[in-house]
Amino acid sequence: MTATKDVKETISNWLRSEEYPDAFSRFFTLWTLLNLYYNQSSQKDHELDRVLDFGRQNEKLFPFLKELTARMIVTECVGNGKEIQPPNSFVKTATLHLRGVLGIDTKPICENCRQAKRQHCEKIACETYVYGNMEAVARILYQIRCNLFHGDKTEYLDGFQAQRNRFLVKIGSEIVKQILSSISSDSLP
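and the corresponding structure tokens:
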């Protein structure tokens, strides 16, 4: 199987840079530390299940993360891949849940979403599953992590998508850092 032009371009851009952008490197590092914790604190077989289990087990963190979470979700939903990909149904459900909990009006956000992304998103049904608040935060953070780690959100040189990716990994890093601070201060089991 041959690599696509976009993948080759992404690899080339990252190799030409002297180092990863700070926000991306920071997210990689912080997520690795969180990974150590949730892998030890859950018996689930799949990583996503361990991440969501972490969220369910640590609901008490949510009051400390409300402001950062609100900043993360007042823009269009985190997509499931590059550029205008809409969110998957679970991320959409988690995002709408958190907007409701935090009293954020979804209508203006969706109206300002990129048109092509919004058209795809409108076709995605929400899940009937009801999230806890931290579980919903964990779901969105995990999508950011997957997009970055699997190379779907590595555009960082210029344009709207590059700015959006930097924003998502920066705010994601801030949230994960707060979680790790709670872990390291023994305020989590």
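(Above: one complete record from the training split.) Residues 47-181 form one domain.
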